[in-house]
Structures are given as C-alpha cells and as structure tokens.
C-alpha cells in the first residue's frame, strides 16, 4: 500500500455559487514532489487550502500525515505559502525570518539556512519593501522552510521569477523531496511539469490526469505537457458531448 502523506476522499468544496471540487479523490505519496497544474480558476488554490485545512468543505475527507487536515498536531508539520506574501515590508529579510522562527518555535540557526536555500544571502539585511516581487516571494518561501515541515504546500511559488531562478527553485524542491519532504506545488505554467516527479492536471475542478510526465506524453502522443493538457481537454469534451 502507498505510504500516503495526503489522502483525499470524496472531497466537495462549494465557494459562493460555484462547486469547485466534487467527489474528488487524491493520494500523495510521502516524500514526493507533485506538481498541481491547471489554468487559472481550475481549483488549484482551493485544493491546496483544503489540504492545509483552511478551506470550508461541504463533504468528504482530507487527511494529512494520518490526521484530519488543519488538525492542531499538524501545525508545525505542514507549511503553506500562499500567493499573497505574508511578510513585513518594513523589516529586513533576516528580521522577517527571525520573527517567523520565533513564532514557529524553530531554531534561530534555521534562519540563515533558509535564506541561503532561496538564494537571498546577498539581500539578507535589505528591507523587504525594497525587494523585487520575485525576491519577496522567495522570502515567503524561506519562512516555510523554517523548522522541519514534513509537508510543504506551495501556491505558485515561481510566479514572476526569471527562468534561472525558477530552475533553481525546482532543484531545491527536488532536493527537499529526496530528503523525505512531501511537496505539493502549483503552477499554471505547463513547462514546469518537466521538473515534477508526478503531475496532477486540473480543469474546472476535475482531475484530468494524475501521472508522470513521460506516461502522460506516451498516453496522449503530445510533445510536451501543454500539448498533453490540450489533448486531454479535447478528449474530456468529446466524452461529455457523446
Ligand atoms: N472567495 C471565493 N468566493 C467564491 N468563489 C471563489 C472564491 N475563490 C475562488 N472562487 C472560485 O473557485 C474556483 C476555483 O478557484 P481557485 O482559486 O481554486 O483556482 P486556481 O486554479 O487556484 O486559480 P489561480 O491560478 O487563478 O489562482 C473559481 O471558479 C473561482 O472563481
């Protein structure tokens, strides 16, 4: 049996007038790097919110590390970075991280390690308010690396980053997974699929595919993730029409 870090069964989420997820099942293996891909509005953030336990759900179960999502015992075992950075513009990078380390009860020695991991060593004493958007989102990411979270849920962490930095971050995610961390990382950039061990393709709250990139390409005959996605969308639409 798979050693699941995340186990979702029959999840139903309704936001306003929209049923975003319905009868949704998913297992994420412990120590894996899973890419959650799909167009804007497909339900990626909603799914991530459910995994970290901040989303009101209308039905089904979400278990993380064997506990219900959002359970108190998961507080320092699961880290979540949203698209909106929750860091202080009037503090330096290091001051922000020291603050979060204190809040989380993480050792102060984690601060410099996390700053190095996101490649912000040369900016450690700069005010966050004076950083670029990409640098700012890396400070957010660094806060999630404090302590030793077993599950990292990252909502579009590479948005606004240049290609070199994006590659570096995906390398970091892969290294963390090799060290046993379970990562769920969303993106609407299909070519990021190449960097994940496993892909989840979402469209309108439906799981279009849950596979490795090579398997997905073989199955669809497409040359890349974007082509595979379009192929699967077309197939799904034909099924609905027939
Ligand atoms: N606060 C909200 N109230 C009502 N509906 C919402 C709310 N937030 C999101 N939705 C709806 O839920 C659906 C899924 O949104 P979600 O943010 O999960 O998508 P996403 O794939 O993460 O998109 P993006 O890449 O743009 O962040 C969309 O139809 C959206 O309009």
From TrEMBL:
Pfam families: ABC_tran. It comes from the Bacteria. Residues 6-229 form the ABC transporter domain. Gene3D superfamilies: P-loop containing nucleotide triphosphate hydrolases. One of its GO terms (molecular function) is ATP hydrolysis activity. Keywords: ATP-binding, Nucleotide-binding. This is ABC-2 type transport system ATP-binding protein. It comes from Jiangella alkaliphila. The lineage of its organism: Bacteria, Bacillati, Actinomycetota, Actinomycetes, Jiangellales.
